[in-house]
Design a protein that fits this description.
The structure is a single chain. The chain is built from 14 helices and twelve strands. By secondary structure, it is α/β, with parallel strands linked by helices. The protein has one domain: Aldolase class I (TIM Barrel), CATH 3.20.20. Helix 2 crosses helix 13 and helix 7 packs across helix 10. The relative contact order is 0.18.
C-alpha cells in the first residue's frame, strides 16, 4: 500500500476512535467491573488520622504520589498531540504514571511521532511507550520496541493484547499465533521493563501464567466493565455483518475484579495494574485490596482533559480523596496496609 494512502487510512481510523470514544456510549454492556461484589468492613475505631494517610507508592522502581496511571489513550494524529501534552502536564503535576496510545503508526511513518512526545513537559513521570503485541507477528521486533521507547523517552514499554478489537476491525490483524514466545523474546532482550496489558476484556489465570513465564515485568489486567473496544469498533464499522455480530459480544470479558484475583493467584509478586471500569477512589481502594499495585483510568481522563486541565486535576483529586477516605474507614494508614487488609469481604450470591 502506498505510504500516502496508508497514512490517510491510519489517520481516519485514529480520528474515528477518538471521536467515538468522546461522543458515543462505548461503556461495556451486560457486564460490570465486578467491584460491586466486594465491600469493606467498616472500622469505627480505625485508630488513624485521615490527614496522615500516605497514598504514595513505588511502581517499577519509580515513586508515585498516588497509585494511579493515566492508561494508554491516543496518538498518531494532530488532534491528539494537544490531548497527550495536556495529560502529561497533569500527570507531572499530580505525580502519577502515564501511558500513550499505540505507536504503530509512528514506527511505520515517522511523521506521526510528534503527537506522542511529552517528556519535555513531564520530566519526572513514569512514562510508558506502547505497541500492539500482535505486531510481533507482522514484522515488528526488538528494533521497533526500542524505537518506541526511545521515540518518547519512556521508562518502560506496554505491549497490548487486543484480539477481540482486532476481530471486529475489517482491517484488523488476526494472527495471534505464538505471541507468548515472542513476548518472552522481547522481554529477554530489552534493558527496560515490559508491561503487558489487555485493553478491556481481562487477563485470565492461564494468560497470566503464560505472561509470567515470558518474564514480563508487570501485568495490566485491563478487565471488562469500562470502555469496550467492541463497542467502539461497532460504531465505526461499515460492515453490516461485523456490526451485527458485535452486538452479541457486548457482555464479553472477565470483570476487572475477577481478573485481578486470577492474576494474583498465579504470582504473589508480579506487579499488577488494575484497569477496566475504574471510576472512583473506592474502586481504586478495592482493586489494591484485591491484589493490584496501582490502578489505571482512561476514558474519564480523556473526557476531562477535553474540558480543561483543571477538570482533569479535579477528577484526580476526587479519586485521591475517595481512596483516602476508604483507607480511613478500614484503618489502613498507607498503601502497604491497604494491600494487606483483612477488612474486605465478597458478598454472598
Amino acid at each position: 500500500m502506498p505510504v500516502a494512502k496508508d497514512r490517510k487510512q491510519n489517520s481516519i481510523r485514529k480520528e474515528e476512535h477518538l471521536l467515538i470514544s468522546l461522543n458515543e456510549d462505548v461503556e461495556a454492556k451486560k457486564i460490570s467491573n465486578g467491584f460491586e461484589k466486594y465491600r469493606f468492613i467498616h472500622q469505627a475505631l480505625s485508630g488513624i488520622d485521615l490527614e496522615e494517610i500516605d497514598v504514595s507508592t513505588t511502581f517499577l522502581g519509580k515513586k508515585l504520589s498516588l497509585p494511579l496511571m493515566i492508561s494508554p489513550l491516543v496518538g498518531g494524529i494532530e488532534k491528539t498531540a494537544k490531548i497527550n501534552r495536556g495529560l502529561a502536564k497533569v500527570a507531572q503535576l499530580k505525580g502519577i504514571a502515564m501511558g500513550i496510545g499505540s505507536q504503530r503508526t509512528a514506527i511505520e511513518d515517522s511523521i506521526n511521532a510528534k503527537s506522542y512526545k511529552v517528556r519535555d513537559i513531564a520530566e519526572d513521570i513514569l512514562l510508558f511507550a506502547n505497541l500492539g503485541a500482535v505486531q510481533l507477528n507482522y514484522g515488528f521486533g526488538i528494533k521497533q520496541c526500542k524505537k518506541a521507547v526511545e521515540m518518547i523517552g519512556a521508562d518502560a514499554l506496554v505491549l497490548h493484547l487486543n484480539l477481540l478489537q482486532e476481530a471486529f476491525q475489517a482491517e484488523g490483524n488476526y494472527n495471534f499465533k505464538g505471541l507468548a514466545e515472542k513476548i518472552k523474546h522481547i522481554c529477554s532482550n530489552l534493558e527496560f521493563p515490559v508491561l503487558v496489558r489487555e485493553v478491556g476484556f481481562g487477563i485470565s489465570k492461564e494468560a497470566a501464567k503464560k505472561l509470567i513465564e515470558a518474564k514480563v515485568s508487570a501485568i495490566d489486567v485491563g478487565g471488562a466493565g469500562g470502555t469496550s473496544w467492541v463497542e467502539v469498533e461497532r460504531h465505526r464499522s461499515k460492515d453490516r455483518l461485523l456490526k451485527k455480530v458485535a452486538e452479541s459480544f457486548n457482555g464479553w470479558g472477565i470483570p476487572t475484579a475477577d481478573s485481578i484475583c486470577m492474576t494474583r493467584s498465579v504470582s504473589k509478586t508480579i506487579p499488577i495494574v488494575a484497569s477496566g471500569g475504574i471510576r472512583t477512589g473506592l474502586d481504586v481502594a478495592k482493586a489494591i485490596a484485591l491484589g493490584a499495585d496501582i490502578a489505571g483510568i482512561a476514558l474519564p481522563m480523556l473526557k476531562n482533559i477535553k474540558i480543561s486541565p483543571k477538570s482533569c486535576i479535579d477528577y484526580i483529586d476526587e479519586i485521591k480523596m475517595g481512596l483516602k477516605i476508604a483507607m480511613f474507614g478500614i484503618g489502613a494508614a498507607n498503601i502497604k496496609e491497604l494491600k494487606e487488609t483483612r477488612h474486605m469481604i465478597k458478598e454472598k450470591k
